Amino acid sequence: MKLVILDRDGVINEDSENYIKSPEEWIPIHGSLESIGKLCQNDFRVVIITNQSGIGRKLFSIESLNSIHKKMNLYLARYGAIIDAIFFCPCKPEKNCSHRKPKSGLFNQVSERFGISLNNTFYVGDKITDIEAAIAAEAIPVLVKTGRGKDEIDRGVIPKNIAVYDDLAAFVSHIITQKK
Length: 180
Description:
This protein is an alpha/beta fold. The chain is about 40% helix and about 20% strand. It contains seven helices and six strands, in the order E-H-E-H-H-E-H-E-H-E-H-E-H. It has helices at about 30-40, 55, 60-75, 105-115, 130-135, 150-155, 170-180, and strands at about 1-5, 45-50, 85-90, 120-125, 140-145, 165. Strands 3-2-1-4-5-6 form a six-stranded parallel beta sheet, with helices on both faces. Helix 1 (about 30-40) runs parallel beside helix 7 (about 170-180). The chain is globular and about 45 Å long.
């Protein structure tokens, strides 16, 4: 099985310091939806792993999160894209939850659910915590410069051996070209 795991905020949709709390605040990054469609059309399965501490902070509810994901999935359907699963951690950082990135608990759930090792699976994120979680899960970390990615590079926190792409579209173009 070919699987790609994506972070949500900053990779698929615009991120916000104030959290994405409603479907109205969920705005796709240019080219991201089409890119997920290309993955699906090239026999990749797509999963999302995302921290959603806004729930733990009581900024929005699980129902709001479900509404955001419903909107996302409706938009993705226009491009023939299907998200096979969404794994999220609602905990605040101070809870020290084993599922919250940079820990690998959600990755372990993906591995169990799909019955695969993640050592040949890309995880695309925009933060150092995404990179650290992918490394901890033995997945292949990829950083995009959208969201907070460029700031993370400028801060010098991204290891030199991590693949970096301008955005999800550039990454998808690269792996699809390599596949052929």
